């Protein structure tokens, strides 16, 4: 039978969870790395966050009436679209389903920039996305740790920000506005000038700062406020921040490539990513 792709509907939710669970489980097992999802319940939670949510568009690939693959496109506003996740059932892989879903998502995006996070260990997806015109724009090292705040000349506050200075600061460093922005990020001031901020993100806290020293002060403050280990996705080029986390007992848990198809503007300061943006 030929593989066909159609938009996902709410009745595809449990099939989506199954595809995600088995595809990622097999991938992690094959690479001998800790499971990204420990149970079908974990996959069902992931699937529940993909349906019935505005600006998330799902696609399923079918073969003989069976769902064998899924792909979800997220409208990220000014920055473009994001893919997460894309998965094909292990017994249906390497027969073109992944590419058929990608074709539909690219067509649906209609020329908008598309981005995704690709596991750096995964040779197959690096090849697949590269052939589709995605370019590695940054590598992120995810580090988990509990660094404590040290002395800083900066003043770090968590006041409300009615004038939207942090939002404007983000735009200046990152080159785009986020679809939503917290009312009370942690903000670092040098004298009266905003030098950076950090905020809880979808997967990881995100931050923008004038330099890595400010970024480090913000991570330390957030870890202290949380009182529990935090995981941050640090651009691989931020060697000072990476070393600082590692010197305080941080553990690298994952390495990911930001791959972008279409326009991309590189941040002009220090930053952390919340996921693909
Ligand atoms: C990634 C995934 C969705 C791809 O789906 P699929 O249906 O297996 O992929 P397709 O058959 O459409 O295409 C895969 C292509 O990559 C190519 N490829 C795979 N590994 C490769 C490698 N090491 N070097 C070069 N090309 C490679 C294949 O040759 C194939 O192209 P071809 O058909 O022209 O030969 C699927 O393998 C999967 O679910 N993996 C586990 C979850 C995952 O990694 N998801 C992506 C998260 S970003």
**Number of discrete domains:** 2
Q: Give the CA-CA distance, first to last residue.
A: 38 Å
Query: Which CATH class of the largest domain?
Result: Alpha Beta
* Continuous helix count: 7
| Percent range for β-strand residues | 25-35%
Main β sheet profile: 8 strands, mixed
What global shape is seen?
Answer: globular
Helical amount among residues, as a percent range? 25-40%
Number of strands: 13
In CATH, the architecture of the largest domain is 3-Layer(aba) Sandwich
What series of H and E elements makes up the topology?
A: EHHEEEHEHEEHEEEHEHEE
Question: What ranges have pLDDT less than 50 throughout 5 or more consecutive residues?
Answer: none
Indicate the mean pLDDT.
95
**If you compute it from the alpha carbons, what radius of gyration comes out, rounded to the nearest whole angstrom?**
20 Å
The strand line-up of the biggest sheet is 1-2-3-4-5-12-6-11
* Alpha-beta classification: alpha+beta
CATH overall fold name of the largest domain: Aminopeptidase
Name the bound molecules: coenzyme A
